[in-house]
Design goal:
Structural class: mainly beta
Number of helices: 1
Strand content: over 45%
Radius of gyration: 34 Å
Strand order of the largest sheet: 1-3-6-5
Largest sheet: 4 strands, antiparallel
Helix content: under 10%
Distance between the termini: 12 Å
Amino acid sequence: MSRKTFLLLALLLLACSLIAGPPIAAGPILSPPDAVTGPRLWVSPLSLDFGPVGVGFESPTQVVTITNYGDATLTDFAGGGVYSPFHASQDCAAGVPPAGHCHYYFTFSPTATGAFSTTSNSSTNAGPFSIALQGTGAGAGLHVSPLALDFGSIMSGSTSLEQFVTITNTGLSTLTNFAGGGVYPPFSASQDCAAGVPPGGHCHYYFEFSPSAVGAFSTTSNSSTNAGPFSIALQGRGRSTFFPSGFYVTPRSIDFGPVGVGFESGPLVVTITNQSWFITLTNFAGGGLYPPFWVGQDCVPEVPPGEHCHYYFRFAPTTTGVLTATSSTSTSMGDFSIDVRGTGVGASLYVTPLWLDFGFVPPGNTSPVQTATIYNTGMSTLTSFAGGGLYPPFNASQDCAAGVPPGDSCRYYFRFTPAQIGRFTAYSNSSTNGGPFTVKVQGGEARPVFLPLIVK
């Protein structure tokens, strides 16, 4: 091969390498260590999503790792602050030596519902970097049962037994701002909700009926909350002192609303009143239910004239979906049935970040740990974690195996230990009872290719 031909071939190969460009990496392209001078910066992850967080609550902390791959100290950190509802802190101010790392810590504390986003911008002696943040403020949720109460027939001039309605918070923030709910005579109302109801908690409205005349009466208790309004219909009948024997059951239907699979609801109560003046209510038979509903009662052996007893219902779903049943009872005065309903709700999954990049790590060295956080935003325990493992040069571990209660979180921990120069990508695939998720991990970079020109 002639000297001229060799020169032309070398120029052609160089042109091809320039056209092809450098290898594509998710982050800045860093030269390998032998080409590094001064501090060099790698930041991961560059975006964080806190998902749904209850208004008035604070998210778990999420961490960004800043690594110095240069041969001089990384210093002069400036900026990085964010405005509410996000909060930031860091341990980088003292500087980061070569091969060292520091961290930025972020939390999200929404004060209103809706989507929020911002950017944390920082500068260093190795250059600037930005971290994108987003999260969603989630409000309270409202379930009320029963929505109607019937006091039956009450003797004029007397007061009924107290009946109550259960208000459950099915959301992620505190149920507050209770207003209204009052009623006019012959009904009266009170409640224990004013202090607020935490997520998953409940409070009660209590009602009585005191007719001062014979006849039918009805009204509506209207309330508002930070999760929306609700109304409870009330009715009853005033009677004279002479009244035939009989019994009265209220309410005749109850709805537990959403309850997490594997959890048990609070009790809902049905009152059975013996309205007779002379006859004892006896011979209670039946009334039982099969799981996921449970019932107990204090009516046996008998209910004297003018007295009352109770059925206590609970709901403990083992599957998701709407479930119904009927509790049927016979007594010495006749039969009655109570319809029950509830909704089993499963775990819900939110994972962030779903992509991690370790940047350049010298062969034979191990990167700092990077973390993916798994949140349970549902109403039952997040369990059945399977998979998630990785082959070298990546390594994965987790603290999720014991399960994650509603509103809590766990973490997957990833490391990168390359044995050689190169760009590596892997996928950590996991399944749970709340659904599957995948975290993409990357690290390293390809050494640039240089074609020397040898001219003789």
